[in-house]
């Protein structure tokens, strides 16, 4: 039984370490160091009870707008979950970006970005994106960069603050979940290659 426990711990830890290592040169924490690209992919991250972006999602949109306003990108691809009429991440993202000064003509909406894998897959296959900046929290950034890169989008990643803003206690569940998500990412990318829910 001990060896099962060792394997159960080793697989997510090693998967996370591998993905973090191989994406290290393409991840940035400062907006002014991000390479210029035509488009940024902004991943959904949930909504508050009143339908506005969650704090994490608001951070992602704000960083994307900062890149847009500094002329480092020219379009925003908002990708998120609109699986029901009561949960529409991308419209909330669009409204927030527009309130911050981005014209609606420069905001593209992907209503079927139900996961990081599906968002990256659809960015390439549905929206014909080949190069981009991806924007998400730092804990999620290695997987986002790795996934998009292996699904046809050459990306650089901008990480928004997480531990600094939400603390160790607030981030612990996200870090644990991310380790498991990294195992799933490697499995989907290199073994099963599932089609997205909608293409």
Automatic annotation (TrEMBL):
The secretion signal range is none
One Pfam family this sequence matches? DUF218
Its Gene Ontology cellular component terms are: plasma membrane
Q: Which CDD domains match?
A: YdcF-like
The UniProt record lists the DUF218 domain at 38-180
Write down the InterPro entries for this protein, in alphabetical order. Answer: Cell_Envelope_Assoc, DUF218, Rossmann-like_a/b/a_fold
Q: Which PANTHER family does its entry note? A: INNER MEMBRANE PROTEIN, PROBABLE PERMEASE, INTEGRAL MEMBRANE PROTEIN
This protein is called YdcF family protein
């Amino acid at each position: 039984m001990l060896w099962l426990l060792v394997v159960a711990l080793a697989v997510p830890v090693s998967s996370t370490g591998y993905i973090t290592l191989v994406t290290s040169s393409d991840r940035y924490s400062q907006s002014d160091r991000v390479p210029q690209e035509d488009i940024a992919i902004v991943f959904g991250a949930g909504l508050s009870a009143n339908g506005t972006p969650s704090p994490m999602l608001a951070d992602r949109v704000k960083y994307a707008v900062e890149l847009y306003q500094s002329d480092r990108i020219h379009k925003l691809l908002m990708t998120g979950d609109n699986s029901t009429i009561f949960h529409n991440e991308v419209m909330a993202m669009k409204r927030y970006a527009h309130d911050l000064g981005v014209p609606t003509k420069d905001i593209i909406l992907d209503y079927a970005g139900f996961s990081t894998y599906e968002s990256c897959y659809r960015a390439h296959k549905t929206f014909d994106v080949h190069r981009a900046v991806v924007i998400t929290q730092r804990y999620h950034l290695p997987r986002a960069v790795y996934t998009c890169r292996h699904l046809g989008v050459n990306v650089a990643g901008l990480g928004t603050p997480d531990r600094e803003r939400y603390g160790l206690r607030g981030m612990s569940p996200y870090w644990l979940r991310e380790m498991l998500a990294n195992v799933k990412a490697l499995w989907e990318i290199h073994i099963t290659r599932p089609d997205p829910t909608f293409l």
